[in-house]
Amino acid sequence: MKRVYVNEDRCLGCHLCEFYCSFANSGADDMAKAFKLDMAATPRIKVEEGGDINFAVSCRHCSDPSCVNNCITGALSVHDGVIEIDESRCVGCYTCVLSCPYGCIVIDKKNGGRTITKCELCTRNSQGEPACVKGCLNSAIVFEERGED
Amino acid sequence: MSVNYFPAEFEVLRNTDKCIKCRACERQCANEVHFYDADFDKMLTHDDQCVDCQRCVTICPTGALKIHKNPNEFRQNYNYTQQIMTENYRQAGTGAVLLSSMGNPLPYPVYWDKILINASQVTNPSIDPLREPMETKVFLGKKPNKMSFNEDGSVNTKLDPHLELSVPIMFSAMSYGSISKNAHESLARAATELGTYYNTGEGGLHKDFYQYGPNTIVQVASGRFGVFKDYLETGAAIEIKMGQGAKPGIGGHLPGAKIREDVSKTRMIPMGTDAISPAPHHDIYSIEDLRQLIYSLKEATEYKKPIIVKIAAVHNVAAIASGIARSGADIIAIDGFRGGTGAAPTRIRDNVGIPIELALASVDQRLRDEGIRNNVSVVVAGSIRSASDAVKAIALGADAIYIATPALLAMGCHLCRSCHGGKCNWGIATQRPDLVKRLNPDVAYKRLVNLVHAWDHEIKEMMGGMGINSIEALRGNRLMLRGIGLTDRELKILGIAHAGE
Fold it and tell me: Which residues of B fall within a CB distance of 8 Å from A137?
């Protein structure tokens, strides 16, 4: 399955992926509008910084995902390998946040933390391909098949 | 106290309606121009630190930024321009020689732009390179004056070592130190894929790049940085750098700030020391001395590799080239006065040397007149900006061309001419690890390959238009060129007729 990977040797820590993610999931047709009119979504990708090494982390779409296994309401499910969130079923218990070994489940600040949100590889917005990959300055974030389950 | 005022050269214009305060500009500016002010909740700028490298403009996700020339100017003066005034202020403050980088930016004539290329009409029909074979392969090195064959048709003449180029374009010398490791890797990989050569410059060869040896020209300059047996044996050819177009008469300059651990190891000099190559080679004071170095290098590499002698285009370049052609060199590289550099004294870069177009024409003519043109191949450098410049150079007599600035452009350079500062925002002319990282060799090498492929296509198109299907038939074919707006004297030196003749 094609997944988003980051090459930490190339990641510059510019944080643009976070902003492109926010815009992609905002529903706005213009990036400036998304941020100026408070439409921007909570970014599903986060740049971890540490001195010379930076890397952007987003959902790994694990083949045996702890978040899905532990979800108490069945809000998280797997469709064609992509772990999706059904916000209408999420009760904001954050069990998934605690169980994700990568820290990739994001508390949705847009709705005051009532639900979580997460990377769905831009399959449910108008992008067509992951916006973080498309916007990465240095081609550090890639969307590719690496033969993992 | 300073009495001088240095107006900021550039001003950053930010459209606050578009700026989303993502701070990418701030994170990506090594000159620390952009910053976020929490009190104002605004992005602000230190305009005086901007070098107009366009990094922030390029990456801004909403297109909120523009950089323009600061309209604040000293009183207009065509003689004492603002630049000359600020340079004098600067020197009054520091007592130092001014440094610059990249090629001469002054408005000297560009002869390429005053030369036009021919095309066939009716007779001698043009050739369509997409439908018919077209040869741009070039061999560089000594050509035998006579060939003899055995009875079975095999060649009996002993041939000198040659470089085989699948395109008549090579990447010219840029040292590891002046440019980053990622930039070097990109050039090496591109040269390998293209079937041409890149040049180490005078900074030695990083151990990681020995694998690209068959497509590497190793340079031996007056500082002899990084020169040892393995280095010489690894390269496909050895270039003796006598001069550089950007700074004829002096040696290379690499500021100590760029000499970090890896560069220091590769150059075999202490970390942090300025690498200032001597102006002359201390063992070369005549053509005979040059011959000794050429044969020392040939001896060291068992006569398997062609030797290139690179000189800057200076006033009596034809006579110098004639001497070099008799000294045992296989290839002469001539670097024009508009050639680039990672650091050179401003006055020298801007005022010393001559245009490559004139130098090439006079060298080719002189070597022909003396009957020694076949002794050497001639490679030209120093601002070959496009495929049409390349075609004109070959028609003026060059066997191949060296490009460097176009290669840098392909890798992201925006010609801000601040290489000597070591803070290249594009990750090219820097050794700061966080900046070097910005040049992704996987992307950059493909862009270099694209660039050369595109030039090659264009060269073939133009050759086809002239009814020529091989570089061999274009070389020195000055009948294919006409001058426009040139004086009789200039036409005579270039050896071409005026348009309409």
Answer: 28, 59, 438
B63 and B187 in a single domain? The answer is no
Q: What is the CA radius of gyration of chain B?
A: 24
Which CATH topology does A1-58+125-149 take?
A: Alpha-Beta Plaits (3.30.70)
Rounded to whole angstroms, the Cα distance separating A104 from A83 reads 12
- From A136, which residue of chain B is nearest by alpha-carbon distance? B59
Query: Which parts of chain B sit beneath pLDDT 70?
Result: 1-2
CA-based nearest residue in chain A for residue B18:
A32
How many angstroms separate the CA atoms of B380 and B393, rounded? 8
pLDDT tens-digit profile of B311-369? 999 999 999 999 999 999 999 999 999 999 999 999 999 999 999 999 999 999 999 99
- 3-state SS assignment for residue A3: strand
Domain span at residue B53 reads 10-96
- List residues bridging with B169 in a β-sheet: B401
The predicted structure's pLDDT at residue B124? 87
CB hemisphere CA count around B279 (13 angstroms): 7
Chain B residues with CB under 8 Å of a chain A CB are 17-24, 27-28, 59, 61-62, 64, 433-434, 437-438, 440, 442-443
> How many structural domains comprise chain B?
2
For the domain bounded by A60-118, which CATH number is listed?
3.30.70.20
CB A114 within 8 A of CB A92: yes
